[in-house]
Amino acid sequence: HPWSRRRGHTVVSDDERTPVSTPGVLAVEIGTLPPIGVVPEKMHAQVVRQDRYGDPSAAFVPETVSTPRIGPGEVLVAVMAAGVNYNNVWAARGYPVDQIATRQKSGEPEDFHIGGSDASGIVYAVGDGVTDWQPGDHVVVHPGVWDEADPWITAGKDQMVAPSARIWGYDTNYGAFGQFTRAQAHQLMPKAEHLSWAEAAAPTLVGTTAYRMLHGWAGNTLQDGDLVLVWGGSGGLGTQASQLVAAAGGRAIAVVSGDDRGEYAMKYGAIGYLDRRKYDHWGIPPLVDDNEGQKAWSAGARAFGKDLWTIAGGREEPAIVFEHPGAATVPTSIFLCQPGGMVVICAGTTGFDAMVDLRYHWTRQKRLQGSHGTNDAQAYAYNDLVRAGKLDPVVGRVLPFAEIPRSHAEMGRGEEVFGNTVHLVGAADPTTGRS
Ligand code: NDP
């Protein structure tokens, strides 16, 4: 990886990787599996190439490619089901980052991208030094990838802040949209036995991200009884966030557009919801010397806050605001957040150029905290809650492997879908895998 190389520490380079396939074994059909440990030379995958970057409906094409090789510390997992996230809409567009060019510059030979940052599956092969996992283990994969020899990590600091940290199946090749995926052994976690393959593939990326946002930032971690405002309360992140808040004894109030979405949010842990379509103070507030404009903006934000108090049952500001819309909502989030509280943000879906009125920010001593991905400890803690049946994976729909281009095109157009979308890869139907 370019960062790692620049800093001069070791990574698994492609020439350290060796094939683990059995010569002469052909790719199996989608919906079937070879015997445990038998790795075909070729596999089916939904492949993105540079000459078709653009709309995901045409950028993803099913191809037969060589099964990935693995190196020290890596594992090969037969994918049973794969979850969909927005990051592979970007990968398909080749914008804002051309992932294929980026990887080639850092020495990876492939001229294609196989994405997918959520998977459930079965371990088929392990690389040198992997002792925790063996062929036949049922797993899910968390999306945090890094170089274990990164000095930041060997110093014991947060893995996901390390210069070598990346997102598997977006920054790395051979993600979940092929029959076999390559991951680092520490990314694997035991699959919840009560969930089907499809259910298990749904929540890990959004759930671990939400876990880090709520529990990862010392000084402002979620406490019993805390009030939390959750934007996009019926979405992938939001449904996990509200469930995590409820599981920790807090109270989540969701923001949504529409009653059907509000009811969906309440099904997954929110104590109530605000319909953002009833307010119009969104976006960047008027400049500080525009008194009238500022007054009008404050009136809008206060009306929103008053409705929040009604749901909370008294004058109470949220200790944590769970942010990802960005430009449209950050001014309101900061305005409403409790003094000493935290607005924690992991995306800027409505725009990256948000505005913060620093007068209130410093005098009320609020925190605006960026958050991205997950480290191992956070992912494992999240997965333990899933395995204990305390969190629902919130499966919206289960689609065939062939519809990976379509689901990404729909996501790219912003078409509203409740819950997480999952595609079947090795699993024959949406319910298999429960035990
Ligand atoms: P979803 O599409 O499932 O949910 C997003 C929600 O945002 C929608 O449900 C919608 O709810 C709400 N929304 C849309 N427009 C606005 C607006 N103008 N103002 C307020 N809310 C709005 O997406 P996810 O929850 O899966 O992901 C959200 C973002 O987080 C994406 O950009 C994603 O890429 C990013 N992300 C980042 C991660 C990281 O590690 N950094 C990890 C996971 C996701 P409604 O219309 O009901 O208000």
Question: Could you characterize the architecture of this molecule?
Answer:
Helix 11 (330-336) links the parallel strand 14 (320-323) and strand 15 (342-345). The protein has helices at 2-7, 56-59, 87-93, 99-105, 151-154, 197-200, 204-215, 236-247, 259-267, 291-312, 330-336, 358-363, 376-387, 404-412, and strands spanning 42-49, 60-66, 74-83, 112-113, 119-126, 138-141, 144-145, 166-167, 180-184, 188-190, 227-230, 251-256, 270-275, 320-323, 342-345, 367-370, 395-400, 420-424. It has 14 helices and 18 strands. The chain is elongated. It has 2 domains: 2-203 and 393-424, Medium-chain alcohol dehydrogenases, catalytic domain (Quinone Oxidoreductase, Chain A, domain 1); 207-370, Rossmann fold. It has 435 residues and is of the alpha/beta class. The model is unreliable at 1-10 (pLDDT under 50). The longest helix has 22 residues, at 291-312. Helix 7 (204-215) packs across helix 8 and helix 7 packs across helix 13 (376-387). Strands 3, 5, 6, 9, 10, 17 and 18 form a 7-stranded mixed β-sheet that branches. The protein has a 6-stranded parallel β-sheet with strand order 13-12-11-14-15-16, sandwiched between helices. The protein binds NADPH dihydro-nicotinamide-adenine-dinucleotide phosphate.
